[in-house]
Specification:
Length: 274
């Protein structure tokens, strides 16, 4: 088995949310026990907290030490790098972030560079974005983790972006989001698979679902048909031995573990190990 373990890794975006203390974790479990308990159920998690700030080194060591040997963490790059400064003059911050993440050792999986939707008023179009992204990718360590890039402008999903990512071995993050194409349209072109792994995020409609609930303990929106659309392309990737990392947000249906469990039931038979 490789250092990254199974071909299929599915988990949630973040490992806690309001409502999980009743719906997901054991009665009476303390927050300090959540990671251990989570890692007995899933083999990966996308750390959302790093988006809001640099993690403490002792916190990262605790993540490493409290999880099984085959557990993998994906981590979101701090928003100061991707949103506030849009990759400009932030090489030192990125290097410091990656240096901290290296404390995870062989449990460090992909690092996600998540970008916002760029409205015309901000003056960011695809050529400008690529002019920033290309030099930034050149600065990333060759011996470091794998990287994925998420954009939320659907008109950017075309060869200039795909080609740049592919030339650096960086994955395009594929997202289930109201603004973005459905998986059938995405996979109709081979170009979206730009690395030797794929990174999928089931995000949903944050504003829409928060009008219905802000407690994440049960399914509010039936996503069964939406998830069904993802199964054929994911099965095809697994058959090709392309590693798949996938993370479900609570805003997708109201309770991310329910969706992860459904995906695991459908996909586990197709996920042979290395």
């Amino acid at each position: 088995m490789s250092m990254f373990g199974p071909l299929l890794r599915l988990g949630t975006s973040s490992l806690t949310a309001k409502g999980w203390e009743q719906a997901f974790y054991s009665p009476g479990a303390r927050p300090a026990e959540y990671l251990r308990e989570y890692s007995r159920r899933y083999n990966t998690v996308e750390i959302d907290a790093t988006f809001y700030g640099m993690p403490r080194r002792d916190t990262v060591k605790r993540w490493r030490d409290e999880t099984p040997d085959d557990f993998v963490f994906a981590a979101k790059t701090p928003q100061t790098i991707t949103h506030d400064r849009l990759l400009e003059n932030c090489e030192a911050d990125m290097a410091a972030f990656l240096d901290t993440l290296r404390l995870l050792e062989n449990k460090l999986g992909p690092v996600l560079l998540q970008f916002p939707y760029f409205a015309k008023a901000r003056g960011v179009d695809l050529p400008m974005f690529l002019d920033r992204l290309g030099p930034f990718l050149d600065t990333l360590p060759q011996d470091g983790p794998q990287f994925a890039v998420e954009v939320r402008n659907k008109t950017w999903l075309r060869p200039p972006l795909f080609d740049l990512l592919r030339s650096h071995g960086v994955a395009l993050a594929l997202i289930d989001h109201p603004w973005m194409p459905r998986p059938g349209a995405l996979f109709a072109q081979a170009a979206p698979v730009t690395a030797d792994f794929t990174y999928i995020r089931w995000l949903g409609d944050r504003k829409g679902i928060e009008q219905l609930t802000t407690v994440w303990r049960e399914t509010i929106v039936d996503r069964a048909r939406d998830i069904e659309e993802w199964l054929p392309p994911i099965k095809a990737l697994l058959e090709r031995k392309v590693r798949v990392y996938g993370y479900v947000n609570n805003h997708y249906s109201g309770y991310a573990p329910h969706d992860v469990d459904g995906l695991l039931r459908a996909l586990a038979p197709h996920a042979a190990t290395d």
